[in-house]
Design goal:
The protein is α/β, with parallel strands linked by helices. The protein folds into 2 domains: 2-139 and 303-332, Medium-chain alcohol dehydrogenases, catalytic domain (Quinone Oxidoreductase, Chain A, domain 1, Alpha-Beta Complex); 145-277, Rossmann fold, CATH 3.40.50.720. The protein is built from 10 helices and 17 strands. The strands form 4 sheets. Strands 3, 4, 5, 8, 9, 16 and 17 form a 7-stranded mixed β-sheet that branches. Helix 4 links the parallel strand 10 and strand 11 (184-189).
């Protein structure tokens, strides 16, 4: 099969022929229909903190069809269409019982979706409803990140909410805020590039960072935000969220920042701020997203602004890194 392979920082991905995957016990092989590019893919190939080893395969936002079944698989069968969690724990430990498999000391990684086929664990798979396409199913993983963040924040319809960073995770947050009926949602961004997309996904105001941004946010929301979602993942944004949130407000940190964050704890302390870091999602969040796509796929689909095949993927990946392609989600169709 063909797959996208990371070689080194500064070197475009290589499309190489590699051995077809074989399912182990409790695993299936999936024929990939779509695989999305995540901000983590960009960070881990850019020398921003952790860097993937040479020879790594990318892709953890994917959907596809089961084409091989391993020993011990009970729930899945050939032809099933699914999305899959890229990290699957043992299922027995105290951390797995919280639903956050990445905290498990024995977790296994199941990425490699930027390819024609990959293998995944039955335990991490979510079957797609019959009315949800495989193309839309690849949105479940990023939507699930937003789902858990919004679930933890528990906004009410009259909450004043700010989303910092309208990238794919910020857009997923907007999707779920809109579904929760929140009426006042501002987005803070570094440029106007994603303005139309943020508004399509549910933002009622779009503010570009700069002098006067705080006043503009308060004017749009009718006061300082009760809840701030940090979805940018760059240094300085958590500190900015602390500045902007109201006293006794809540901050949900979703951005994957691998550099030191220069915050002044006393500022948060004096405002009595609740700061909550949120790592990925539960299996139930995945299932919620699958059901949401049944009802609201068109809204979620607005996130996707570029779809390419494997041959075009290395160039599109670098263009996406440079901000030279669509403002939303880059998708790979390995058979397109």
């Amino acid at each position: 099969m063909r797959a996208a392979i990371f070689k080194a920082v500064g070197v475009p991905l290589a499309i190489e022929t590699v051995p077809d995957p074989e399912p182990g016990e409790g695993e299936v092989v999936v024929r990939i229909a779509r695989c999305g590019v995540c901000g983590t893919d960009l960070h881990s190939t850019s020398a921003h903190g952790y860097t993937l080893p040479a020879g790594s395969r990318l892709g953890h936002e994917y959907a596809g069809e089961v084409v091989a079944v391993g020993k011990g698989v009970e729930r899945l069968k050939l032809g099933d269409k699914l999305a899959a969690m890229p990290v699957v724990g043992c299922g027995r430990c105290e951390y797995c019982r919280t639903g956050i498999d990445i905290l498990c000391r024995e977790y296994k990684g199941y990425g490699g979706g930027a390819a024609e086929f990959t293998r995944t664990a039955e335990r991490g798979a979510t079957l797609l409803p019959a009315t949800v396409s495989l193309a839309d199913g690849a949105l479940i993983e990023p939507l699930a990140v937003g789902r858990r963040g919004v679930r933890l924040a528990d906004p009410q319809p009259d909450s004043r909410v700010l989303v910092i960073g309208p990238g794919p995770i910020g857009l997923a947050v907007l999707f779920w805020l809109r579904r929760a009926g929140v009426k006042r949602i501002a987005t803070l961004a570094s440029s106007k590039r994603r303005k139309a997309l943020a508004e399509t996904m549910g933002a009622t105001a779009f503010v570009v960072e700069g002098e006067g941004a705080a006043a503009e946010i308060e004017a749009a929301l009718g006061g300082p935000p009760d809840i701030v979602f940090e979805a940018a993942g760059v240094p300085g944004v958590v500190a900015r969220a602390i500045e902007l949130v109201r006293p006794q407000g809540s901050i949900i940190a979703l951005g994957f920042c691998t550099a030191p964050e220069p915050i002044v704890p006393a500022v948060a302390l004096m405002k009595d701020v609740n700061l909550r870091f949120c790592i990925i999602y539960t299996r139930e969040d995945f299932e919620d997203c699958a059901r949401a796509l049944e009802a609201d796929a068109e809204a979620a689909r607005a996130m996707v602004t570029e779809t390419v095949g494997l041959d075009a993927f290395p160039t599109a990946f670098e263009d996406f890194r440079a901000g030279a392609v669509g403002a939303g989600k880059l998708m790979l169709d390995p058979w397109g």
